[in-house]
Amino acid sequence: MNEHLILAMAEYFAGGPKQVQHFLKVHAFAMVIAQEERADAKTIEVLEAVSIIHDIGVKIAEELYGDSCGKYQEELGPGAAEDILRRLRYPEDIVSRSAWLVGHHHTYTNIEALDHQILVEADFLANFYDENMSKEQIREAYKYIFKTHTGKKLCHDLYGV
């Protein structure tokens, strides 16, 4: 089922290979973290989908506002995520949880659920490289964002923090 979602998102971001490369990295990081942290099957199922569609609001935000800041992504992404997941016949519980996570993946306070924590960490791991962040920016994010053992280890191994 997720192969169809990857293909649908590649079509959605047609002509934007950076977005596709980004969500593929986030997906890979999320799956490694989820497996190593022994997430349950439902959490993994949600992360499989949401890690692919988490930035679906980027395109809409750029079209409407000429800016894809996190606030706009969180505002505009959930409806688009629901549409694509329903079209691909994902179960309703996956659709609703994924939409919520899309609407909160740039919200870094009060992260209480493992799927939210893993998505945020995976997104940061990809963004550190994609956005060529400085060692100091990475160190700050590491200190305040990373909570899972696996996410911390990946951050340390990849970026030396």
Describe the structure.
This protein is mostly helical. Helix content is 75%, strand content 0%. It has helices at residues 2-12, 17-36, 41-53, 57-65, 70-87, 92-102, 114-130, 135-145, 149-159.
What's the short story on this structure?
With 161 residues, this protein is mainly α. It has helices at residues 2-12, 17-36, 41-53, 57-65, 70-87, 92-102, 114-130, 135-145, 149-159.
Task: Please outline the helices and strands.
Elements: H1 2-12, H2 17-36, H3 41-53, H4 57-65, H5 70-87, H6 92-102, H7 114-130, H8 135-145, H9 149-159
H and E string: HHHHHHHHH
Helix/sheet category: mainly alpha
In round numbers, the mean pLDDT is: 96
Helix count equals 9
pLDDT below 50 for ≥5 consecutive residues: which ranges?
A: none
Tertiary shape: globular
Tell me the distance between the termini. Answer: 36 Å
Q: How much helical structure, as a percent, in the residues?
A: over 70%
Q: In angstroms, what is the radius of gyration?
A: 15 Å
β content, as a range? Answer: under 5%
Which short descriptors sum up this protein?
single chain; 75% helix; 0% strand
